[in-house]
Specification:
single chain, mainly alpha, Collagenase (Catalytic Domain), Helix Hairpins
Amino acid sequence: MAGLIRYAIEKALCYNDVKQRSVSVVICDDNYIQGLNKQYRDMDCPTDVLSFPLYDENGNLDGDELGDIVISVETANRQAIEYGHSPERGIAFLTVHSVLHLLGYDHTEDETIMFTMQKEIMESINNKISPKTKKICHSFKFAFSGMWFCIKNERNFRFHLFAALTVSLIAPYYKFITVEKILLVFVITTVLISEMFNTAIEAFIDAQTKKYITFAKVAKDVSAGAVLLAAICAIVCGLFLFLKVDIIHNILTDIFTSIPKIIATIIYFSAGYVFISKGGRNIS
């Protein structure tokens, strides 16, 4: 990490034809950077990075020291998950961004210039980032993070997940043929994927605007409608596959003639109720 930060600083300085300047870098957590924000910026919240240029009383750089950079690794890691890149790339980007601030650039006044410089500098840095950060394991990490977000925050997703588990538990009683098994897996997966897309669309829209916009409402309604359509399709397929009176009778007989199975069933559905109704927002 230290080598990558040093390399990012060198690239940013070299790009601006600045030589013989040193930069101090502090890697910290959210609490530390929140304290600095509160002390120096009157902001009681963590941010990803802070820059402290060392200017003399005339506004010129003082000596060989360019300034200090403070990076919150916690925020950088969250942003890496949010934007779909590696933590190392996030740290490198924040370093470059902060060095440009130390050199006097401001993204409110020089936004286009800073964006162009950051893009070109990062293109030269990306080749230096360890190949390990580009391995497929990171893709799996981000994917599991997305699924965990849905489980943690989406009540409807938890309901569909519990329903899928319940269906999977009783499916062996029906001795489905291969085609029926494929159909069952397909409809379950379709409903879960629809819920995840709905969550992604709503989260994206909410991130873009907090105001009531007609097209934003249309996008949310259409994505919710897609989930409803998938759920209806799943119900129809479920009735086709599971609505067999003799097998239902066998399942109920098997359960209610055994005290342990009755207790297990009660515990299972009680746990399912808690799982579905536990805290978290319901975007859908």
